[in-house]
Design goal:
Pfam families: GST_C_2 (PF13410), GST_N_3 (PF13417). By secondary structure, the chain is α+β, with helices and mostly antiparallel strands. The protein contains 12 helices and 4 strands, in the order βαβαββαααααααααα. It starts with 6 loop residues before the first strand and ends with a helix.
Length: 232
């Protein structure tokens, strides 16, 4: 087996890299972290990362990109403590929630920041509110919490949490908050924030606000922003 110490190419502001840092922290995996300046991505990193994006995990001859794929790789290599259920059905449910995060929640999170027209912004906010209510009802609310699928943290929790740590950005720039009736999500958010691995990776709102200002005024130049707006 390849026993090399993993190297994670990351950026503290990036929620997708945050997902991977959480998985490694939950597993207690020692890892070298290399911070990439997303405003001046070096040529050597573009040669290393096929998409020129973080996160990228390198372990010996293995080179893995895309946060959902990296986290499944981490689960396969370091199986304890498990971040996936044992049975196929719940494992599939975790994967469906990770896909839901990227296809519905994350995309509208960014659109709400990027879109400048008030009428479009209002429609996105309404859609994001309904998405959050669906998540509240079918996620932690359906399984009795405190985590997404019940009593144990899974990769589904790690897919969503980085964006909940950044929800204050939406409140600051767009006046958008977690709906008051999303009580299961509110409890889940508190439970996640209290985990030692999550606390070890946490940044406060003061860190995020200046780094998301260019999203809020739509002057940011990033692959994520371009991809989200192309699909808007």
């Amino acid at each position: 087996m390849n026993a090399a110490r993993p190297v994670l190419y990351s950026a503290a502001v990036c929620p997708f890299a945050h997902r991977v840092r959480l998985a490694l922290a939950e597993k207690g995996v020692p890892c070298e972290q290399v911070e990439i300046d997303l405003d001046a991505i070096p040529d050597w990193f573009r040669r290393l990362s096929p998409y020129g994006k973080v996160p990228l995990l390198v372990r010996g001859e293995d080179r893995v990109w895309e946060s959902a794929v990296i986290n499944e790789y981490i689960e396969e290599v370091w199986s304890s403590p498990p971040l996936m259920p044992a049975r196929p059905g719940p494992r599939a449910e975790v994967r469906m929630w990770v896909d839901h995060a990227d296809q519905h929640f994350v995309s509208d999170f960014y659109r709400l920041l990027l879109v400048q027209e008030p009428e479009r912004r209002a429609r996105i906010a309404a859609r994001l509110t309904e998405t959050l209510r669906y998540m509240d009802r079918e996620g932690p609310g359906a399984h009795g919490g405190p985590y997404w699928l019940g009593g144990r943290v899974t990769l589904a929790d790690l897919a969503y949490y980085p964006f909940f740590e950044r929800l204050g950005v939406l409140e600051h720039y767009r006046g958008f908050r977690l709906p008051e009736d999303c009580r299961a999500l509110a409890r889940w958010r508190v439970a996640m924030a209290g985990r030692p691995a999550v606390a070890a990776c946490a940044r406060d709102l003061g860190f995020y606000l200046p780094r998301y200002a260019r999203y809020a005024d739509a002057t940011v130049d990033s692959d994520t922003a371009r991809e989200v707006m192309e699909d808007a």
